[in-house]
């Protein structure tokens, strides 16, 4: 399945969607993209269950994010100790109005701890700006 994209665009699309699935535990996408993601995610979880440094490096290469690779190994893979495949479930939502494509929610079968991220604006305010002032 090519999704009307060239190879590099497909790889970038799958990488970003797999990162979103790892970080948030669910994802709303089209049926065709979800069907492409399921076997890729199964391979990532199987590699994450090994838990070695080499497997973390391979996951970081595939996900293009060390943080996502570590989350996959440390948080998500231990939730599926006995399962061999089928780590996700897909639920059909609705048909998109613009192009009549079936939308699907792809979700992990285990409940994940919530990721709390700090918004960029609050990080900027927390810096001490008095260090940059020069004395006269």
Structure write-up:
This protein has a three-stranded antiparallel beta sheet. The termini are far apart. It has helices at 7-24, 31-50, 53-63, 66-76, 120-126, and strands at 26-30, 88-95, 102-108. The chain is an alpha+beta fold. The protein is 49% helix and 15% strand. The longest helix is centred in the first third of the chain and has 20 residues, at 31-50. Residues 121-127 have low confidence and may be disordered.
Principal-axes geometry comes out as: globular
CATH class: Alpha Beta
CATH superfamily: Ribosomal protein L17
Total discrete domains: 1
What's the average pLDDT?
87
What Rg is obtained from the alpha carbons, in whole angstroms? 19 Å
Let me know the number of strands: 3
One letter per element, helices H and strands E, the order comes to HEHHHEEH
Distance between the termini: 66 Å
Sheet having the most strands: 3 strands, antiparallel
Approximate strand percentage? 5-15%
**DSSP summary: helix tally:** 5
Low-pLDDT segments, ≥5 res: 121-127
SS-derived structural category = alpha+beta
Task: Give the name of the CATH architecture.
Answer: Alpha-Beta Complex
> Which fold name corresponds to the CATH topology?
50s Ribosomal Protein L17, Chain: A
């Amino acid at each position: 399945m090519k999704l009307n994209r060239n190879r590099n665009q497909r790889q970038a699309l799958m990488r970003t969607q797999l990162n979103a699935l790892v970080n948030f535990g669910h994802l709303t996408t089209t049926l065709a993209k979800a069907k492409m993601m399921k076997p890729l995610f199964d391979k990532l979880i199987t590699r994450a269950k090994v838990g070695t440094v080499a497997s973390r490096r391979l996951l970081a290469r595939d996900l293009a994010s060390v943080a996502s690779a570590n989350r996959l190994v440390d948080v998500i893979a231990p939730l599926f100790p006995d399962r061999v495949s089928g780590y996700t479930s897909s639920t059909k939502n609705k048909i998109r109005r613009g192009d009549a494509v079936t939308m699907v929610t792809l979700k992990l079968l285990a409940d994940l701890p919530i990721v709390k991220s700090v918004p960029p604006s609050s990080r900027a305010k927390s810096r001490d700006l008095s260090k940059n002032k020069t004395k006269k």
